[in-house]
Every structure is written in C-alpha cells, then in structure tokens.
Amino acid sequence: MSWLVPENELTPEQLRAIRLGPEENRAIVGGPGSGKTQILLYRARFLKDKHRIFPAKFRVLVYTNVLKDYIRSALPLLGLPDECVLTFDHWCRLFYEEHIGRTLPWDATHKTPDFAAIRQAVAALIENRKVKLPLYDFVLVDEGQDLDIGVFNLLSKIAKHVTVCLDSKQKIYDTDSNEQSILSVLGIQRRNISLIDAFRVCPYLVRLASVLIPEQGERDAFVNQARTEQVERQMPFLYLADSYADEKEKLFQMIRERQLKNDSIAILFPINKQVFGYAQGLKEAGIEVEVPQKGKTKGKIPTHDFGSSRPKLMSYHSAKGLTFDSVFMPRLTSRAFEFTRQSQERISKLLFVAITRATKWVFISTDKKDMLDVIRDKMLPMESTGQIFVGRMGQNVRGSQPSKIPEIETENDPLDFL
C-alpha cells in the first residue's frame, strides 16, 4: 500500500496548491502532516500534463537519499519517471560530470566527493552563463528550509519556474536561509499557500510535538491550526527504563505489538552508528528490519524498500519528509546524545521532526537515571494532564505481558549494541 493519498481525498487547499499556475515562482508553507510532499508530486504531474513538458525538462529536488527513495516508491502511480526525482547534490554531481569534467573534487578525509566544491564549481559555471539557460521548464523543491540561499540563487537561473515547499519549524541544518530570504531570492512577495490542515495526525501527537516548539506564539498556532484526522486515539508511550536490558526488552515487545496491527514503522536514532547497531540486535531477536545501504552499494540501490512492511531504521535527519503509522525513539539519554554535540534547542528540533513523522502513535524510551532534560521538563509533566502514558518496569501495558526476548551480547557499556 502506497503512502500517497488518492487525489480525490486531498483537501480543497491542497488541490489549489497543486494547480497554481507556473507564470511566477511559488512558495507553499505547511507544518508536519499538511501534505507538502503529496502536493509536490501531484503538482509535478499536473504541470507536466497541462503544459506538455517532457521528463528531461523538469526536476523534483530533495535533501536526502532516503526522501528521494520514499518519493520514488510512489512515482509509478503518477506516471512519473525515477530520474526526475533526485537530491540536489546528486543533480550537481551529474551537471559537473556533463559540463565540467568526469573527475570530481575529492574529500580525502571522509573519502567521498567534495560536494561543497562541486556546488561552487556548478554555481560559478551557471553564474557565468557558460551553458544555455534555463535548463528546465520547472523545478520543484521539498524541505526547502534546509537548503542554503545559494541553492535558490542557482535554481532561479536554471528553471523558468520554481515551487518550494518549506516549514521553518522543521529546520535542523545550519544554513544561511530563512523563509523570507528564500522568497526574496525567488521573487515571491509572500507565501502563496499556507497549509493549516494536518489531516494525517493523531491529536495526541500534535500536543506532544508542540511542547518542543520554544516560542509560545508558534506553539499555540501549531496546536490551533492542526485539524487532526479522525483516527483511533492512542496516547504516546514514554517508557522509563530501569536498565539498558529493560529498555531493550520493552522496545522489542512494543515493535512486535505494532507489527500485529500492520503499522508501518520507523525506528529513529540520533546517529547512524546506533542505526546499524540496533539493526543487528533486532535481527538476533527475530525481528526483520531495514537499514540504509552503505559502502559500495550506497546510491546504487534504494536506501529502503518503502513498499515492504518491515520496520525502517534511520537517523532523525534521514527521516525528514517521511510518514509512518508508528515511530519508535529509543535511547533518549544524555549519554546517547553526547556524540551529537547538540544544544538542548537543537535536540528539541530533532525530536520534533522525529515525532511528527508518525500519524498514529509514538514510543519514546529513556533510562530514568539519565533522561534528556526535554523529557524530564516538558514530556513527563504531560502525564498528569492525560496527554502521555508513562510506563515503568513491571507494568502490564495495554494487556501485554513482557515477552521473553533473547539476550544480546554487548559490551559492559552498551550504547548501541556495538
């Protein structure tokens, strides 16, 4: 079953965003669950069909490979080719190889192409108009808040029309852009569409995510504007573990319960090291999961199979723009986040993005002796108002007895099964 909502089930405002004319650039702003990615894909098909544009003359650009593969999983339903959707850095690489040279600048430290240098070379070539412009009839951009302003300068030159979808509340990368600067570069006086209907979100998740928004006005607007879907209302589950083993057992138990409900599942972590460590642990416990491709296979095959029901493991950053029924966020401890060197404000933004990937339910777990400040100060108080369920060792949650999970051999300091 595809994550793509049938067009006849979209709201009038979403349909209006899809059918905006291309005579000027457009900006579509909306919070989590407002359907920005859905709109972008339907808009690509609308512009292609209405104006009879060949696939070589349009692109849909995204920030991560995971989001690219997520979007590509729905393209057959719309009759759009895979090559039309790619990351901005991959587009720059292809352009560099075609117009500058086959030998790419190289980052010897990280043993990857030097994408910053590639971007600069591509931007310089386009700025000097060494190629015939524009290259495309339209370019559509998802998660625009995380791209720097130079990207939009470049896009304004290579495309006759640009539509960008963005949400400042979900910005988790340090770039020099904001909504106003993006609109200014694209020659847009104000956002064309403000999507306020979060049609896919359980109301409990809206409340939980809202406590992570620091500014009171934005927080109130996020709660008040969200029109939540009439789905089964299930309180988010915060588990305060006595130990690493206790947390691990509860995580495995709850994953199995959500699998029995046929939920699509994401298990999110702050760093990739934890992704691959937990994948091994889950495999040994008999739970089949998917992790991003790496090494020589990276980029050659999809990061995940979004047509399968297997739980998907990935970092918070990779999950941007994706949607799942249930999201698991284990190991929310101070120790686990030491490696990210993130401020409390940045941690809150990452957790906001992670929680808002879910449509039905969220599981959050931590060590009760080492919980993050944001859990202690903002989430735990929600128990007294009936907005979150807080579980502890030995409790019988929703009638489920703790299952006997095979122990996993770990070091004495088990951060992530490695």
Distance, first to last CA = 34 Å
Overall 3D form: globular
- Biggest sheet, in brief? 6 strands, parallel
pLDDT averaged over residues: 88
Q: Strand content of the residues, in percent?
A: 15-25%
Discrete helix count: 15
Strand arrangement, major sheet: 3-2-6-7-1-8
Poorly predicted ranges (pLDDT <50, ≥5 residues)?
A: 399-418
Secondary structure blueprint with pairings:
Layout: H1 12-18, E1 26-30, H2 36-50, E2 58-62, H3 65-72, H4 75-78, E3 85-87, H5 88-99, E4 106-107, E5 112-113, H6 115-127, E6 136-141, H7 149-158, E7 159-166, H8 179-185, E8 193-195, H9 203-210, H10 216-225, E9 237-241, H11 244-260, E10 265-269, H12 272-284, E11 312-315, E12 324-329, H13 334-338, H14 344-355, E13 358-367, H15 373-379, E14 389-392
Parallel strand pairs: 1-7, 1-8, 2-3, 2-6, 6-7, 9-13, 9-14, 10-11, 10-12, 12-13
Antiparallel strand pairs: 4-5
Key words describing this protein structure:
418 residues, 15 helices, alpha/beta, disordered C terminus, 6-stranded parallel sheet, globular, 35% helix
Description:
It is a single chain. Residues 399-418 have low confidence and may be disordered. The protein has 15 helices and 14 strands. The protein has 418 residues and is an alpha/beta fold. Helices cover 35% and strands 16% of the residues. β10, α12 (272-284) and β11 form a beta-alpha-beta unit.
